[in-house]
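[User] I have long wanted to understand how a fold can be written as tokens. Those tokens are not coordinates but codes from a learned vocabulary of shapes. Could you go through the record with me and say what the backbone is doing? Thank you; the sequence and its tokens follow:
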Amino acid sequence: MHELLLSPYQHRQSRIHRLPAGMKLAGAGVFVMTVVLLPRTVWSAYGVAAAILLLVAALSRLPPGRLVQRLLLVEPFALGVALLALLQPNGLEIFLAMLTKSTLCLFCMVLLAAVTRFSDVLQVLWRIGVPSLLVTTLALMYRYLFLLFDEAGCMARARRSRTFRADRWSVWRSSATVIAQLFVRTSERAERVYAAMCARGWKT
């Protein structure tokens, strides 16, 4: 799961990979906006959108299993939002439309992340005038997510090696302890990193 979340880019020798990052980002944005604005009952248009995504995936020479894994990893978020539509009149129709649109948009983002380096996306955001503080924050967040997951994994392994009872209450209590300690360590490390950056001339 760590790899699926934080290392989505897959290098391939394909035409899609060689396209400029700005073009891929703009194409993904247009696709998402088009899908979102489609009427709920135009199922043929959803089929065309899905065919376009599958064609792009084929041209990108990406392994289908990997793409499906990443899509299934984020699909619960779309399902959770779509389930709320069941409480409305015509809820089933709205639910199916929302789930279809969300799945198409998520698959588009999965494809974009698989064929475009995150550093290239940041450069595009910088060039189009996105505030530098936001771009810097995104870059630092992406950089330190790896560190956060590694730290959480080390703490969880250390806790398991010292826990001899496997009942549910002990598992919950140890998980809560790991989360609390991770929050404290993350805050302390963030303060140290910020102080080091300021000492080297970084300005907010």
